[in-house]
Amino acid sequence: MEMIKKLTVTILFPLLLISLLFAVPASAAVGGANLKVTIVETNPYPAKIGEYLTLTVQVENIGGDKADNVDIEVVPQYPFSLDSEANALQNVGVLNPGRTATKEFYLFVDKNAQKGIRSIDIRTKTGKNSPWSEKSFDIRIGTETFNSKGTVELKEFVSDPEVFMPGDRGTVTVTLKNTASNPTVTIGGSDFDTNARIQAAVLRPLSDGIIVLDAPYGDMGLLGPGDSIKLTFNVKVAEDAPEGTHNFELAIEGNSFDYNSRKNIPLKVDSANIRVIPSKELQLTNGESTIEFDVANTHLNEFSSVSIKPEAEGITFYPVEYFIGPMNPDELFTIEFNAVADDSWGASKEEEINMNLTANYNNGINRHANTVGDLKFIDTSESPESNSTAVLAGGLIIISVPAAFLFYRRRKQ
Which UniProt keyword terms apply here (predicted)? Predict the structure, then answer.
């Protein structure tokens, strides 16, 4: 029996060791490069029979490591064909985590193609020796024509956050409404229904540095008179996008060609952030002090979860981090910290300390931080002699007050 136990341990231990060794690469692979591919635009949309189609493909590295050499390849199927087989594959190169890249492919739609939904395959890989990853996409061909007379109009649009910062992600939500008020309308002696159809809706960026992360909406159904629908597009502002107002084009395909529309949608980008300014002198007296700062939101919209954290070598702050919460544009808060020096500070030493203040805050779903550095914190500790002199002077004043009071009483009598 003892022999069997020893044999079991002898066999299981190497197996356990091997499993642990093979588990390491698996866990590392989770944080590796990972590509997400999307068709962000087809032009024209829907594709026209017997004509060329421009396909804009976007690839994003959603993994934790950079992709060394990204390739994108389109694998067309009937009724699609490439203008040249040499254009089937395009190289992006290095793609760092969180970054996106776009490439355009030109396809021809066969003249004998039928209206409807057809598929196309797109392959990507992260490096020269990496395996291909393939995804299938639906592309709509042809436009239906309906006799309905309802008209789809853009009622409103909302961006979240209201004003983006460079590098931010967010959403643009549009509300589309059928402007008809009656269920039927009579034109030329014939009756028509006033339903409105949204055959397609696509949001296209008109400025560099602005990216739409979603494919176009298709076949959104029927809107009765006065009905409305909300469509949400995920968007991203590049890190190097310039400040100012950028524009999208919202293209809507309605009942027929006469009911199609294009609307302009602005998007604001502003890099202004949280400013932290000392409101009184930064000094430490006998190892302790209360310091005060003005905190201002200089951005064009509200920030949430605003907090301020001070740091200086040899000094401890209370609270460690001051939580403010939401801040409206141009709103100002005054905050205080108690600063206490460590035991290493000398009682009579005068010197300057560098102090940093970090402001953390959210703009929509995006977490930001900016640091105010190189603030001069002055130590103005008093010597023991000056302290004793001050105590003696205070004692004399305390003693002289009763004496003067007694002298005054006597004179009054």
Answer: Membrane, Transmembrane, Transmembrane helix
Nearest residue to 124 via CA among 218, 39, 30: 39
Answer whether 287's CB lies under 8 Å from 381's CB: yes
**Taking the complete model, does pTM exceed 0.70, yes or no?**
no
Short-list 58, 52, 44, 116, CA closest to 80: 52
Distance CA(311)–CA(297), nearest Å, equals 21
First to last CA, the chain: 114
Q: Are residues 160 and 261 in the same domain?
A: yes
Say which range, 114-118, 283-287, 331-335, 401-405, has the weakest mean pLDDT: 401-405
Which own/partner contact pairs does 187-193 have at CB distance under 8 Å and 24+ positions apart? 187/149, 192/147, 192/148, 192/149, 193/147, 193/148, 193/149, 193/150
Model confidence pLDDT, tens digit, residues 311-355: 988 889 999 999 999 999 999 999 999 999 887 655 445 567 788
Task: Give the residue numbers spanning the domain of 253.
Answer: 152-269
Q: Does 261 share its domain with 160? A: yes
What is the rounded CA–CA span in Å between residue 254 and residue 115? 16
Count of beta carbons in the 10 Å neighbourhood of residue 164:
27
What's CA 28's distance to the chain center, in Å? 26
Return d(Cα 180, Cα 254) in angstroms, integer: 13
> 353, 377 in Cβ contact below 8 A?
yes
C-alpha–C-alpha distance, residues 184 and 264, integer Å: 30
Give dist(CA 265, CA 203) in Å, integer: 9
Residue 227 shares a structural domain with residue 199: yes
**CATH code of residue 245:** 2.60.40.10
